[in-house]
Amino acid sequence: xxxxxxxxxxxxxxxxxxxxxxxxxxxxxxxxxxxxxxxxxxxxxxxxxxxxxxxxxxxxxxxxxxxxxxxxxxxxxxxxxxxxxxxxxxxxxxxxxxxxxxxxxxxxxxxxxxxxxxxxxxxxxxxxxxxxxxxxxxxxxxxxxxxxxxxxxxxxxxxxxxxxxxxxxxxxxxxxxxxxxxxxxxxxxxxxxxxxxxxxxxxxxxxxxxxxxxxxxxxxxxxxxxxxxxxxxxxxxxxxxxxxxxxxxxxxxxxxxxxxxxxxxxxxxxxxxxxxxxxxxxxxxxxxxxxxxxxxxxxx
Length: 300
What we know:
This protein has 300 residues and is an alpha+beta fold. The protein has helices spanning 100-124, 158-170, 187-195, 197-200, 204-212; strands spanning 34-38, 43-49, 71-77, 79-87, 127-130, 139-141, 148-151, 181-185, 223-227, 239-246, 250-265, 271-284, 290-296. Helix content is 20%, strand content 31%. The strands form three sheets. Strands 7-13-10-8-9 form a five-stranded mixed β-sheet, with helices on both faces. It has a four-stranded mixed β-sheet with strand order 1-11-12-4, with helices on one face.
């Protein structure tokens, strides 16, 4: 062979696996809920029971003053979700790589992201509630303004985080009573917090947790810090909505109409179809156990 023709004899080593695109693969938020388990039905309810307090007793043998308990029922609608994809039967025999594994892994990752999105949206959204027995009468209950910290024109700050934590204390959502508190953070919050020496020097071990980007047993400001990049846009341009909540403050349920499966489809040239159908639903049971906060996303 001459130098001019040797390249015609070159060979190519084909890859025998696929590298998944960068994505959130694990469910990070849905485990921090009251798990209602598998739901049978189109929706499920949450029962609320109000607060009662003692009153001074009147004269001897006076009529007994009755305190009526405020009771309400909330409705959580299950939302169906489907994911399906197909592989042409000619593809597997034409390549060294196996498509089955990456497809299953991608499906499970998408399922976990859907779980988290359901809980996150329920935390900051509205829920239907009624206090009378009737087929109708539900009214939307939004997260009140008193449970929102709006600082969407500035990056996350120590003052904002302290305000969020103080609201739980004000609402008697106390860690000493066994309440578990959680808070979301994204890359912008991480960058701001790690650049603030007044924060990082105060609690070195907790900041190590933030640097690793993992859910850790270490707590800072009494919160479990949960990385979540899918926050929605806030009211200000370029802002995002973070959320802090007590694990006991939201109910989460699921259903599985069709588990992940593989079928041969004669109607599309005997392609192998992968997919499944799941349903998820989540709802706040008490607004005082949830605080949302807006901040300028400096990495947007």
